Structure formats: structure tokens, C-alpha cells
Amino acid sequence: MSNKIGQERLHTLEKNQYQGQLSTVKLAGPKGLTMADIGLVLRKQQNKLGETLAKKTHFTVTEIDNLLALYRKLCEGIDLDRMDRTRFREFLHNAFDMTDDILLDRIFKYFDNDNDGFISRDEWIMGLSVFLKGKILFSI
Ligand SMILES: [Ca+2]
Questions:
Q1: CA end-to-end span of the chain, whole Å?
Q2: What is the domain range of residue 132?
Q3: Neighbours of ion ligand 1 (CB under 5 A)
Q4: What CATH number has the domain bearing residue 113?
């Protein structure tokens, strides 16, 4: 009799342990990181990107943070660093009232430094730095 209770208790213990593991699995992302860890890694990554870009551009770290936030907003629902021509043109159209197709295409090509058809975050910042704060107008 006491043996049976003992077994039940053991079973419950195993079950709890199993559920405990399950909830850990649910919270953990790739490489066993929790969502909080991933958030921290992404923030650190972005801070580093901001600092690197601030050295290369006319922008301050705060300005870059704001421009990266705008980038994320414009790229909602797509992969990181994959702003396509359509989204970019929409941005120029809305922000600067640009409608000239040839001009829009040339600006896109100027921004797309590695010519892969997408504007990554650093291309976005570098391009805007020239576009908004460049001392010498780029030839288009
Ligand atoms: Ca690119």
C-alpha cells in the first residue's frame, strides 16, 4: 500500500519535472536563449551598429537610433535588412513628395551599395547621411 503511494508521488514528481521542462522549452529560443536574452542581444547589436555608423556618417547615435526605428517601421513584416524597391519608393514618395520614376530608381540604386536589390540597415543610414546631410550633392 505504502509502496503504491510512493510510486504515485514519484509519478507526480516526474510529471511536474516534465512540465517544468516543457515551460522552459516554450520560453527558450534558438541556442537556449530566452526572449529576454534575445532582446538584449538585439539591443546590443543595434547599439553597436549605431556607434559604428555614427563614426562613418554625419548623424549622431540618437539620430541613427531614430532612423533605424523608422527603417523597422517601414519594413514591418519582412526580414531584417531586406527593404525592397517598392517600400523605399513609397518612403521617398511620402516623405519628399517624389514621383519621378527615373529619379526614384536612381536614388534606390545609389542607396543599394552592394547592388543586391535590397536596402540593408547600414545602406539605409549611409544613404540618408548623404541624402539629408551630405555637403556635396551626389550626381544623379
Ligand atoms: Ca543592398
A1: 89
A2: 3-139
A3: 112, 114, 116, 118
A4: 1.10.238.10
Q: In the chain, which residue ranges form alpha helices assigned H by DSSP?
A: 2-27, 35-56, 61-74, 85-96, 101-111, 121-133
Q: How far is the CA of 30 from the centre of ligand 1 (A)?
A: 27
| pTM of the model as a whole | 0.66
Between the CA of 137 and the centroid of ligand 1 the distance, in Å, is: 21
Domain count, the chain: 1
**Residue indicated by cell numbers 552592394:** 114
- Give 31 Cα–ligand 1 centroid separation in angstroms: 28
**Structure confidence by residue, pLDDT tens digits, 78-105:** 888 999 999 999 999 999 898 899 999 9
